[in-house]
């Protein structure tokens, strides 16, 4: 009997390791309960992995809390696609890096965080966990991230060996000239990295003068190496293999205000003021298509950047439409041999047009 039990444990461990090293292709998308799209309305047949954003960090206990929408998310999305994987994403762009650094700096708080995450995932039917710790700027944050990932993976192996562990990280493996992401710890402990290949530029970023730019270009013809493909190449060069990288595509744009409606191409002079077309100047794909229709906006696709922009009057919007999405997904699969792609975020799509194009382009 003891021998049979040992064989079973060894078999389960082998399956876990096989899963860790050979994850299936990722057709991913992020969703949050307050984004206007009900989980039951998600066409989960278009995805292999869906992320519920976000679990929040309690700053007193360093344990995680989730909303009712995230509690029911895994069960809901499997109603249309029983094979879709659900991952619980933690943190987000509005979470403070210092809070996560404080958690990751001490053994006791790391343990509270890790144990809480595994408990939440397993009790609510999730297949995995995703860390979205952003805005790192210091070397110590990177050191603490490495320690956190190493201990997290060890705890998952011990407590729930089938759980996937991922992270959404900066488009290249350095936050600035001094803070470099711990590529070895990332490669050793994560199933994959969701590379956030967007928000390279936005109105008001940096000092003046301001110029319109695509915020999620696949290529950078200027040679500045600020693009999705440049970021992917940098991650691979840093030591994270291509089959552990997933390319991010945005389902939203950035709206700029042109200095003159007569100068309206890429690198056209712009003001640093917030564009008022939508709050925060980040219209969804749905809003962009409505803007084009209602204003007779001119649409331009630039194949050198792999980016769209449209303009009417002094409003200029950079975004991705179906051709850009298809080109990026084809690059991810055929050129770079990546694990897959993901979208931020799926509620911003229009009748699933971008999600369908991405899924069809990748294929089965």
TrEMBL record:
Keywords: Glycoprotein, Glycosidase, Hydrolase, Signal. SUPFAM superfamilies: (Trans)glycosidases (SSF51445), Chitinase insertion domain (SSF54556). Residues 1-25 form the signal peptide. Gene3D superfamilies: 3.10.50.10, Glycosidases (3.20.20.80). GO terms for biological process: carbohydrate metabolic process; chitin catabolic process. GO terms for cellular component: extracellular region. InterPro entries: Chitinase_II/V-like_cat, Chitinase_insertion_sf, GH, Glyco_hydro18_cat, Glyco_hydro_18_chit_AS, Glycosyl_Hydrlase_18. Pfam families: Glyco_hydro_18 (PF00704). Belongs to the glycosyl hydrolase 18 family. Chitinase class V subfamily. This is GH18 domain-containing protein. It comes from Chenopodium quinoa (Quinoa).
């Amino acid at each position: 009997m003891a021998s049979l039990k040992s064989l079973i444990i060894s078999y389960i461990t082998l399956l876990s390791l096989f899963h860790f090293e050979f994850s299936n292709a990722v057709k991913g998308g992020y969703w949050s309960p307050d984004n206007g799209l009900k989980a039951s309305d998600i066409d989960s047949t278009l995805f292999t992995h869906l992320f519920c954003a976000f679990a929040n960090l309690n700053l007193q206990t360093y344990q995680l809390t989730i909303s009712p929408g995230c509690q029911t998310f895994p069960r809901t999305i499997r109603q249309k696609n029983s094979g879709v994987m659900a991952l619980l994403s933690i943190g987000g762009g509005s979470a403070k890096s210092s809070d996560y650094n404080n958690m990751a700096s001490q053994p006791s708080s790391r343990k509270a965080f890790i144990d809480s995450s595994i408990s939440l995932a397993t009790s609510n039917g999730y297949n995995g966990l995703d860390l979205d710790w952003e805005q790192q700027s210091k070397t110590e944050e990177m050191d603490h991230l490495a320690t956190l990932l190493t201990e997290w993976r060890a705890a998952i192996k011990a407590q729930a060996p089938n759980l996937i562990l991922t992270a959404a990280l900066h488009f290249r493996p350095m936050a600035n000239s001094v803070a470099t992401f711990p590529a070895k710890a990332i490669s050793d402990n994560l199933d994959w990295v969701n590379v956030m290949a967007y928000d390279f530029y936005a109105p008001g970023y940096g000092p003046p003068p301001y110029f319109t730019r695509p915020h999620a270009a696949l290529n950078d013809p200027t040679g500045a190496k600020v693009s999705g493909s440049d970021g992917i190449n940098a991650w691979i060069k840093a030591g994270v293999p291509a089959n552990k990288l997933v390319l991010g595509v945005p389902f939203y744009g950035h709206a700029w205000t042109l200095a003159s409606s007569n100068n309206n191409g890429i690198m056209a002079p712009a003001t640093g003021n917030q564009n008022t077309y939508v709050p925060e100047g980040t219209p969804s794909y749905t809003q962009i298509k409505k803007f084009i229709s209602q204003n007779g906006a001119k649409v331009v696709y630039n194949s050198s950047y792999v980016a769209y922009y449209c303009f009417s009057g002094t409003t200029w919007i950079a975004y991705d439409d179906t051709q850009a999405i298809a080109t990026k997904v084809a690059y991810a699969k055929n050129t770079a041999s990546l694990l897959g792609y993901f979208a931020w975020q799926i509620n911003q799509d229009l009748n699933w047009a971008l999600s369908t194009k991405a899924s069809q382009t990748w294929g089965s």
